[in-house]
Amino acid sequence: MNQHSSTRIENPQGFVHTGTGDIHFNVGPQLQESDKPSFRRLAEDQLVRLRRVLVAPPGMGDARALLADTGTVILDGAPGSGRTSTARVLLREHHGDSGVFHELLPGEEDGLHLHDPALVENGDQLLLDMSAADGQQWNTARADLSALRNTVQEQHAHLVVVMPHGGTLDPDLQHYRIEIKPPNRLDVFRQHLRMHGIPHEQYAQSDSIVTEFLNENRPMQEVADFADLVRRARESAQPGEHFAQWCETARGALNDYRKDVAEKVATLSEAPQRALLIVVATLHGAHADVIHKATQLLLRTVGPPSEEAPLLQHKDLAQRLEEISATVGSGGKVRYTKLDYDSAVLTHFWDHMPDLRPHLGAWAADVVELNHPHVDPPARDGLVTRLAGEYLRTGRGDNLASLAEQWSSGAASRSRLEAAVQALTCALNDPAHAREFRERIYQWCAYRQLRGEFAQVLVRVCADVIAASHPDQALLRLYYLARRERGSARALQALCDLAAISRRLRRRLLDRLARSHLSLPDLDIFLRACEPVQLTDSPDTTRALVEEKGVQRSLTIGWHAVLAELPRATWGPHAESWLHRAALDTGHRGEVLLDLLVNAAEQCEESRGEVFAALYASARQAERTAPGSLARSIETTELLLHKINVAQGLEPATPPASTGGTRS
Questions:
Q1: Where in the sequence does UniProt note compositional bias of the Polar residues kind (predicted)?
Q2: Which residues lie below 8 Å from residue 337, measured CB to CB, with a gap of 6+?
Q3: Per-residue pLDDT tens for 403-426?
Q4: In 3-state terms, what secondary structure has residue 158?
Q5: CB under 8 Å to 649, separation ≥6 — which residues?
Q6: What's the burial of 276, exposed, middle or buried (CB within 10 Å: 0-12/13-18/19+)?
Q7: Which residues contact residue 429 at a Cβ distance below 8 angstroms, ignoring those fewer than 6 apart?
C-alpha cells in the first residue's frame, strides 16, 4: 500500500507593522471582476453536491425525524462512518428563506460563547463539529449545549452536533443522541461513480478488485477517493479498456511509487531531465506546449543556463517524455503512464531536494503569467493546488502564507493574484490547517501592513471562502479591511453584502461599530450598514431589528457620531433614506426611525440646535424626492419637527392632531 502522505485536489474551485496607529492601503483593479462563484452560491453548491453523493447511513432517518421535531440532533459514530457529511446534509434539508448555514467555532478569536443568544438568528442552520475535539474541548462545549439548544428552539433554528466518538453526554441530552453507522460501502462507491458520470452498466457487475478493496472496511473518504481514482483511470485509459482495467489501474495507483521514483531520478541526472520530471508532475495533464515552456522557465529559475548545443541537436519533446515515463495523449495533454505517479514525483523532489522549494514558488508565479491559450484558469489552479499541497503536507503553512504574499506584492497581475487566492483557499479547505490560516488571515486583516495588492486577495478569500461556512469570522475580517482601505470600496462592499444575508450578521456589525472608537472609516461603514429597509423588514413573526433595544443603542451611538463629526452633505442622503422609509412604513417602526435620529441629535450637546435644524432641512429635502405619497412625506416631516421640539422642551410630548399620533 502507499504509505506516503500527499494532498490532492482535483478540479479545484476556488488565498511588520507591530506598533500603534492605523495602516491604510489602496486596492488595485485586477480582481474587481471575478468569474468565481460568490460565497452564497459556493456554499449552496457544495451542500447540494454533498446531498446528491451521500448514501444515507443507518441512523440518518432517525436523525432527520429528531431534527425536524426538536431542532437539535447530536450525532455519534465511529470515525469514517460519514457522520460529518450526514450532519451537513441534514442541515441542508432545512435551508429556508431566513437564516444562514454557519459552523460554530468555540474558542476562536472574537467568537461568541455557545450559550450567547446572539449566536443564533431565526432559521439558522448551525453545525458544531466536535468530532476531533479532545476531552477538555468537548467538556467545555458540552457545558453550554443545553443553553444553545434552548436558543435554537426559540429561534426556530436547527442545530446538528457531531460529538467525539466515545465522548460522554449529559443525561438531559441523551434524548438527542443518534448513532450513525457506516453505509454499505459498495453503494457508496457506486454512488460516487454515478456522480462522476460513469454509466451504470459499466460498473453494475461485481469486480474482484473492488470487492477486495471494500472488504477492508475503509473509511467513507477512502472509498470516495478510490472511486475518483477509477474515474481518472477511465479518463486516461486506452481505447477498448473497460471497468475491470480501470479498477486495476486505480489499485496500482495505491502502490508506493517512492522507490520507483527514486530509481528514476537516479538514472536521470541531467538538469533538463529532472526539470521535465517536476514540470509534468506539477502541470500534470497540461498541453505539451505549456510543458515545454514551463520546463524552460524552471531551468532559468533554478540557475544560469549552460551553453547549449544547436537547436536541431536537441532531443525532441517526445523522446524526453519517454525518458521520464510520460506520454502525450489526446488533445496534446501530457501525463505519466502510471496513475498518480505525478504525486509521487513531486513528493520525492519536495522531500529530498528542499533547496528547490523557494525556486518552485518563484517559478509557479512565472508560469501562471504565461500568455498562452492553454494556460487557462483550471491549469493555473491545478499548479497552485499541487504546490500548496506539498507545503501543507509537510507542515509548512508559514511558507505557503509568505508565498501568497509574495505573489501579491508590487504591481501583481490578475493571474498572480488569482494564484494567491487559490493558495490560501487550499489552506482554508485543509482540515489540518484551516484554523491556523483563519487566525493568520485575521492578523493580516487587523494588524499587518499589506503590501501591493494583497488586500484585495484577502477580500476575495474572506468573501468567497471563509464566508461560505464561517460568516461571522468573515464579517470581522472584512470589517478590519474596510476600515483600512483607501481609494476603493471593495472591502466595504463585500462587508455590506455579507451583512445583508442575515439579521444576526448585521446586528453583530452594528454592535462592533458601537463598541469601537468611531473613526471616519467606521462612520462610512456605519452609514452603509444602517440601511433602513433591512432594519425595519421582518419576513416572519419576529421583531424587526430596529425594534431590538441592543440595535437601537448601536444605531443611536452611530448616528450621534455621524451627526457630530460629518458634514450634512455626507450624511444627508442617508438621513433622507431613513425619512423615506419612515414615510412608507405604516406601522410604528417608521416612528422608531425618527426617534433614533432625534435621540442621536439630542446628544450633540452644544451643537444640537444646529444638528436639529440640519435634520429638519433634510426632511424637507426628502419630501421632494419621496418615492411614495407626498402627503405622507409631509406628515413625516411634521412628526419629526414635533419630536425635535419635544427634545428641546418647546412642545408637550403629545403629538399634534395633524400627525395622527403613532401611525398604524
A1: 1-10
A2: 325, 326, 327
A3: 999 999 877 899 999 999 999 999
A4: strand
A5: none
A6: buried
A7: 9, 14, 465
Give CA separation, 210 vs 190, 216, 224, 257, 417, in Å.
10, 10, 12, 21, 42
Give the span between the Cα atoms of 567 and 563, in whole angstroms. 7
Distance CA 570, CA 559 (A): 12
Query: What residues does 179 pair with on adjacent strands?
Result: 76
User: Is a pLDDT exceeding 90 seen at residue 519?
Assistant: yes
Please state the domain extents for the chain: 56-179, 489-659
- What does 223-243 look like in DSSP terms, one character per residue? HHHHHHHHHHHHHTPPTT--H
Cα–Cα distance for residue pair 413/399, rounded to 1 Å: 21
DSSP percent split of the chain into helix, strand, coil, nearest 5: 60, 5, 35
Element (H, E) at 622: helix 608-624
Q: How far is CA 320 from CA 231, 257, 269, 290, 578, in A?
A: 28, 21, 13, 15, 71
Which residue's entry shows cell 468537548?
A: 138
Residues in the chain: 664
Lookup: cell for 317: 519533446
- Cross-strand bridge partners of residue 26: 486
Distances (CA, A) of 252 to 176, 227, 256, 370: 44, 13, 9, 34
3-class DSSP state of 8: coil
Report the candidate in 435, 436, 440 with the shortest Cα–Cα distance to residue 457. 440
Which residue is associated with the grid cell 462512518? 81
Q: Which of 513, 515, 521, 479 lies closest to 496, judged by CA?
A: 479
540-576 as b/e: b if 16+ CB within 10 A = eebebbbbbeebbebbbbbbbbbbbebebeebbebbb
Picking from 302, 436, 408, 316, the residue whose alpha carbon sits closest to that of residue 356 is 302
Give the CB-side neighbour count of residue 149, counting CA atoms within 13 A: 21
Q: DSSP state, 344?
A: H
Q: Which three cell numbers stand for residue 513?
A: 461599530
Find, among 502, 512, 619, 639, the residue nearest to 98 by Cα.
502
Nearest CA among 532, 516, 524, 519 for reference residue 582: 532
For residues 361 and 350, the answer to whether their CB atoms sit within 8 Å is: no
410: number of Cβ within 10 Å: 11
Cβ atoms within 10 Å, residue 314: 12
Cβ-in-10-Å burial (0-12, 13-18, 19+) of 381 comes to buried
pTM of the model: 0.86
pLDDT of 573-614, one tens digit each?
A: 999 999 999 998 767 899 999 999 999 999 998 898 999 999
Please tell me the class of the 56-179 domain.
alpha beta
- Sign, CA dihedral 318-321-325-331, equals negative
Specify whether the CB–CB gap between 640 and 615 falls below 8 A.
yes
